[in-house]
Design a protein that fits this description.
Helix content is 39%, strand content 22%. It is of the alpha/beta class. It has two domains: 116 residues, Rossmann fold (3-Layer(aba) Sandwich), CATH 3.40.50.2300; 94 residues, Orthogonal Bundle (Arc Repressor Mutant, subunit A), CATH 1.10.10. It is globular.
Length: 226
């Protein structure tokens, strides 16, 4: 398994690389945003570990460019001292799959890397999923609602795909967590943050909500009257 670590602090970068290499990962390192972009855009990685406060190109811009310009779909973990909800949501909006606040234990980083690598990537025979005026092409990842183009990073997209496949059934929290992290969710709020971001994209700009919380059970994607 090959991992790219992008971090401008040489001590932190060295610790990350040493820890992951000791667990038989191949680790490439970059010390600024431009170098990180060049490596990620020209190589295949199983996971990218990305600091936010980078010289030459910050982590938000780098993540967006990788997703939107380079077509990079490698799971990406942002690591940063910025820990407000708005900053976390900005990370997910730019294309991150996970968010780890500094200082962090290397063992936790290793667990999150492993969970992303093992995340199931299930294929479906149905290419176009529709719920009301929400439409997802599962092959091209083109997402629209009421004809308006929408963008989602990989983790919220994976949740939406499952919710659309199961609609109008209720999908339990446990099953949604398993979709992203198998049996090792990073913390109790991680799923809630992804769902909150998903709701901001697919529901907030529109008059009718499709994503519903079923308290104590999970979430449901349904059109009115179903």
């Amino acid at each position: 398994m090959r991992i790219l670590a992008i971090e401008d602090d040489p001590d932190i970068l060295g610790n990350i690389a040493s820890y992951l290499e000791a667990r038989n990962y191949l680790v490439d390192c970059a010390i600024d945003g431009m170098q990180g972009y060049a490596l990620a855009a020209s190589n295949q990685y199983d996971v990218i570990v990305l600091d936010l406060a980078l010289p030459r190109m910050d982590g938000y811009v780098l993540c967006r460019r990788l997703r939107n310009e380079a077509g990079c779909e490698a799971p990406l973990i942002m690591v940063t001292a910025r820990d407000t909800l708005d900053e976390r949501l900005a990370g997910f909006e730019s294309g991150a799959d996970d968010y780890l606040v500094k200082p962090f234990a290397l063992a936790e980083l290793g667990a999150r890397v492993n969970a992303l690598i093992q995340r199931p990537r299930r294929r479906t025979a149905v290419r176009i999923l529709r719920v009301s005026d929400l439409e997802l092409d599962v092959e091209t990842r083109r997402l629209t609602r009421a004809g308006q183009m929408l963008k989602l990073p990989p983790s919220p997209m994976a949740l939406l795909k499952l919710l659309m496949q199961e609609s109008p059934a209720v999908v339990t929290r446990a099953r949604l967590e398993e979709t992203l992290w198998l049996d090792s969710p990073p913390d109790s709020d991680s799923l809630r943050r992804h769902v909150h971001f998903l709701r901001q994209v697919i529901d907030r700009p529109f008059p009718t909500a499709l994503l519903h919380t079923i308290h104590g059970i999970g979430y449901q994607l349904r059109a009115d009257g179903t």
